[in-house]
Design brief:
This protein is mostly helical and 475 residues long. It contains 16 helices and 2 strands. The chain has a two-stranded antiparallel sheet with strand order 1-2. The protein is globular, with a radius of gyration of 23 Å.
Length: 475
């Protein structure tokens, strides 16, 4: 990750926001600059995506903490009320599955800057609805909060393609590597801070011992902060320089809802690519379970405060960030398969250690060993995920790379939605069998074990080239 240094300044070319009056395709959207951070448009973009990621993780973690039954039960006692984290995960993830293709279409059909700004305006509206959902929670129950969480996922689903696609249109090619490094760094900082702040905000309103819906009403103050962040994020999005629509005459088709025919053919014929996609889905299934498992372990079994619980969840992102750097270095100096094996077995071992609760002793790793184990779990996850993601981006032929990323995103979010359903089943089993909450980690390790044993990244097989003309007629 690059530090911002040697900042200079350079004039920017003003691009008309009206695509019909945009400059010719041969002209660059922005003048060359010495460093991405000397481009005010890029600075506006970084601030926009930072506040968006911060708000997403703050609000989502608030909802997950609220979804957990009140603390105070002994390890073996059933908590009062069901753990609703699985419901929250499903509600937030479904929009990415349903609207991911449509969002990608809009990001190509219209200026990505316009899509980003309108998405941020929508975020203000959704956070405003969140304020009322918290205030009236005792009357309308969790239904209002689920609606807001669904709308929040929808807003994020439409924001994503514009966010990920605008950089090549806004920056010069020789700036993209450094710009992506800055984006990755600031995104992880936003995730860590947003997740970590949720706990202190919930503890500040002193909701312990309250009925969850009564406690929700007290969180209207926290939702005001979310509204403020959304407003600031919208204002800084206006700094982003207008860009032309990538395909202003693109027609909407069925391929923007389901998996396009060329992609179905490619995945049928390229077995290493299909296996990598399945492995990616299993990873995101485990990742979705991890956040819910850590929240439940810390709040119910270890009876930590919301502040400490959120800090424990944030440690996973710290591990992912550190593991990502190490995985990138190891991949350059050795085999991707070696890095993946370290990651898969690291995840299995960490889950196994986190799952053990000894009678009369408690969690095997202890409360002091828990932070280290969570950082190691995040690092191991990065070791597995990063080579897989690079393979999925590089393997497809050039004409299908964009659609491969769209399919990957939809498949991964489907796995996250499934993690919510699986967590609900595990929660019911744990309550019925009177097991400690750490048992969720045992299930995660078992689910991931086949990947550790059998998965091997695609060999040196040549990637398939699927001509668009032939592919479009294939079933």
């Amino acid at each position: 990750m690059d530090n911002a240094s040697d900042l200079g300044s350079a004039p920017l070319e003003v691009v008309d926001p009206n695509p019909s009056e945009a400059p010719p395709a041969s002209e660059p959207a922005a003048a060359k600059v010495a460093h991405p951070l000397s481009n005010p448009s890029f600075v506006g973009f970084i601030a926009t995506q930072f506040f968006g990621a911060f708000n997403d993780n703050l609000f989502k973690q608030l909802m997950l903490l609220l979804a957990i039954p009140a603390v105070g039960q002994a390890v073996g006692e059933a908590a009062q009320g069901a753990d609703l984290q699985g419901v929250a995960t499903i509600v937030f993830g479904i929009p990415f599955v349903i609207f991911g293709g449509v969002a990608g279409y809009l990001a190509d059909r219209y200026s990505k800057r316009r899509v980003i700004v309108l998405s941020k305006v929508a975020e203000i509206a959704v956070m405003g609805l969140g304020l009322f959902a918290f205030l009236f929670a005792p009357s309308v129950g969790f239904s209002g909060l689920w609606i807001v969480l669904f709308l929040m996922g929808t807003q994020s689903a439409f924001f994503g393609p514009g966010k990920y696609g605008i950089l090549p249109e806004m920056m010069q090619p020789n700036q993209l590597a450094r710009a992506n490094g800055i984006v990755l760094m600031t995104t992880f900082i936003a995730i860590i801070f947003g997740t970590a702040l949720a706990g202190p905000l919930k503890d500040m309103v002193n909701t312990d011992g309250m009925d969850r819906l009564v406690a929700a009403r007290q969180l209207w103050v926290a939702s005001l902060i979310c509204i403020g962040i959304a407003v600031v994020g919208t204002l800084v999005s206006l700094l982003i320089q207008p860009v032309r629509a990538a395909e202003p005459h693109l027609k909407f088709g069925s391929e923007h809802i389901a998996i396009a025919k060329p992609m179905r053919r490619l995945l049928r014929q390229d077995r290493p690519l299909l296996l990598a996609l399945i492995a990616s889905c299993v990873f995101w299934l485990i990742a979705g379970l991890t956040i819910q498992a850590v929240n439940s372990l810390c709040k119910v079994q270890l009876q930590m405060t919301d502040t400490r619980t959120s800090l424990m969840v944030a440690l996973i992102s710290i591990g992912i960030a550190a593991g990502g750097v190490a995985a990138g270095w190891l991949s350059r100096s050795g085999s991707d398969q070696r890095v993946i094996s370290l990651g898969t077995w690291g995840v299995v071992i960490c889950c196994a250690l986190l799952s053990i609760t000894l009678p009369g002793v408690g969690l095997l790793v202890g409360e002091f060993g828990l932070p280290l184990m969570l950082i190691l779990l995040g690092a191991a996850a990065a070791f597995f995920a990063i080579p897989i993601q690079v393979f999925l981006q590089a393997r497809p032929p050039a004409e299908l790379k964009g659609r491969m990323i769209a399919v990957m995103n939809q498949a991964n979010f489907f796995a996250i939605v499934m993690s919510g359903a699986i967590y609900m089943l595990l929660d019911r089993l744990i309550v019925e069998m009177d097991w400690p909450r750490s048992a969720v980690f045992a299930a995660m390790g078992i689910l991931f074990l086949p990947v550790a044993i059998f998965f091997r990244l695609g060999s040196g097989d040549e990637p398939l080239s699927v001509p668009n003309g032939d592919a479009e007629t294939a079933d």
